[in-house]
Amino acid sequence: MSAQTGKATDVVAQHVNGALRKGILAAARSRRMDGAARKHGMRLGAQRFVAGETFAECAEVLARLNESGLYANTTLLGEDVLSAEEARSVVTEYEGILDGIAARGLRVNVALKLTHLGLLLDEELAYENVRRVVDRAAALGNFIRIDMEHSGLVDQTLGIYRRLRAEGRDSVGTVLQAYLFRTPGDLSALEPLRPNLRLVKGAYLEPAEIAHPRKADVDAAYARLIESALEGATSYTAIATHDERAIEQTIALAERMGVGRDRFEFQMLYGVRPRLQLQLAQRGFKVLVATPFGPQWYPYLMRRLAERPANLLFVARNLVRR
Question: Cβ(115)–Cβ(156) under 8 Å?
């Protein structure tokens, strides 16, 4: 195969993957498809990425991860709550999860979405709810990660994070997405807080006016973001990627800059590259496995498929085996 032919093949593959990704993310927002998917439960293949539908099921997975030398966070899957009562019930569930983690002595923290706590209803409601969860975590010596959602919620999410920190709550961190053009500025603005940040490439479908549309550009932006965080005033940086090249570049960068291993960790998703997770842990790096659970697994599964459309084959095989 000539170099020109190979380049053309790569371009076609990028277009096909891009089209698949858009289609999958559109399906993730479909309530009709959500309902249909749940009829088949975890047999669709969600069990590869989701550690059960209850915390009791998830806790068994978390314990096994800890026993193998890995850390974890857990998330009660859900988002876009439109009832204040439901949002408060989610808070109660998270308090119970934190109590369960403490009772079992697990090396596990919690990640959550503000729309699951009522952000689409009222920002003050979401703030009060997340403050309750952060305070319970702090009392138990644990930590809360506020996940980042789509671009329309970045300002509110960062505003709530800043407010929590201004009130002296340090057992909380948040997330920055490399594909958004605004993110380098957000990182600089957060540095006075010496934040604990998770850095991701980004998993939502965003317009080209505000986000890098090309994978190569996202990868480059991610590398720059990691370097800025490690050399800046972030107190702790979680590098969330399954890209082995990005991981090795980060290790080399940290060694060159004299950044200790106590100032960063690698984060990966449950069910994605488990062998690499163990290899990094055996090399002495802290590796945290994002391990969600809950009946509201459909949107999460679809975003995982969008990140790597080849995973559709895994789901298809599970459907055929039914």
Answer: no
Dihedral sign for Cα atoms in the order 188, 194, 199, 202: negative
- Yes or no: say if 288 and 70 are a contact pair by the CB < 8 Å rule: yes
Dihedral (CA of 227, 229, 232, 235) sign = negative
pLDDT digits (tens, 9 = 90+) for 156-194: 999 999 999 999 999 999 999 999 999 999 999 999 999
| Predicted TM-score of the model (pTM) | 0.84
Closest CA to 240 of 282, 189, 182, 289: 289
The hierarchical CATH code for the domain 51-296 is 3.20.20.220
253 vs 295, more confident: 253
Long-range contacts from 165-171, C-beta under 8 angstroms, 24+ separation: 165/193, 165/195, 169/131, 169/134, 169/135, 169/138, 170/138, 171/134, 171/137, 171/138, 171/142, 171/143, 171/144
Q: Where are the domains of the chain?
A: 51-296
What gap in Å lies between CA 222 and CA 178, rounded to an integer? Answer: 5
Mean pLDDT of the chain: 87
Contact at 8 Å (CB) between 124 and 159? Answer: no
At 305, the pLDDT band (50, 70, 90 cuts) reads low
B/e letters for 279-313, b = 16+ CB within 10 Å, e = fewer, are ebbeeebbbbbbbbbbebbbbbbbbbbbbebebee
Which has the closest alpha carbon to 24: 300, 317, 319?
A: 300
201-224: b or e for each residue (b if 16 or more CB lie within 10 Å)? bbbbbbeeeebbeeeeebbebbbe
Phi/psi of residue 252, each to 5°? -65, -40
Amino acid (1-letter code) at residue 252:
A
User: What gap in Å lies between CA 47 and CA 26, rounded to an integer?
Assistant: 22
**Cα end-to-end distance, the chain, whole Å:** 40
Residues with catalytic roles: 147, 198
Residue 123 neighbours by CB distance under 10 Å: 17
Is residue 69 a contact partner of residue 282, using CB atoms and an 8 Å limit?
yes
Q: Name the packing angle between helices 123-139 and 154-166 (round to 10°).
A: 50
